[in-house]
Amino acid sequence: MDGLSGITNSEDRFKVLFTRFKRPIHDYVRAITGSHELAEEITQEIFIRLWRKMDSYDEIENIDFYIFRIARNECMRYFKKASVETNMLRELQKRMTAENNNVADYINYKESEGLLDKAIASLSPQRQKVYLLSRRQGLRIEEIAAEMQISYNTVRNHLVEALRQIRHYYIEHLSVAVLLISQFFLISCHLSNN
Predict the structure, then answer these.
(1) When comparing pLDDT for 11 and 59, which is higher?
(2) Relative orientation angle of helices 63-121 and 125-135, to the nearest 10 degrees
(3) Under 8 Å CB-to-CB from 155, ≥6 apart: which residues?
(4) What is the DSSP letter of 3?
């Protein structure tokens, strides 16, 4: 049948099968994978599987078909695993890119917040108080007027002027912030490409 019927020792049978099939299996796997190194690795796995089945060797009807079926299945298992790993890598890259965007958003937020704090600090004390009561505490103009004991129109004028000054401060200092943000993006893009 396969020239091994007279050999009863599993180890001796395995040695004969290894010697007989190593080269043809390796060539078959290499033809499928296109890689010598990968063929070596998969061929090793094939013979490990075969070794584990040596106790049931007598139940195998066609050893040639059986070994090449193991080879085909191992190649399929490798490609399936590689596909899963590739998909996981893509997902990880997407998440890392999203994470980088979150970091960039956070940095932009912190820089804008710092710029706003400096703009508020440049306001006169009364205008600063009106702005903070309105924007940070959420009070309406009439509530601010009552708390500060000033007229409605004075509060409204302070608020309008505070917003104008803050916009002007942003315009003056925005070029520095844009430069810093663009530098950050250039660095992060450079790092992600390496």
Answers:
(1) 11
(2) 140
(3) 130, 141, 144, 145, 148
(4) S
Q: What pLDDT shows up at residue 3? A: 58
Side-chain-side CA neighbours of 78 within 13 Å: the count stands at 21
What would the pLDDT profile of 153-184 be if each residue is shown by its tens digit? 999 999 889 888 888 787 777 655 555 555 55
Cα separation, 101 vs 114, in Å, equals 20
Decide: residue 3, CB within 10 A, 0-12 exposed, 13-18 middle, 19+ buried.
Answer: exposed
Residue that wins the pLDDT comparison between 26 and 115: 26
- The first and second tokens of residue 8, run together, are 């009863």
Residue 127: CB atoms within 10 Å:
20
Considering Cα of 146, then 149, then 153, then 154, what sign does the dihedral take?
Answer: negative
Would you state the pLDDT for residue 22? 94
Helix or strand run (H / E) with residue 185: helix 152-193
Give the separation between CA 49 and CA 29, rounded to whole angstroms.
15
CB-facing half-sphere around the CA of 31: CA atoms within 13 A = 9
Rounded CA separation 183/19 (Å)? 62
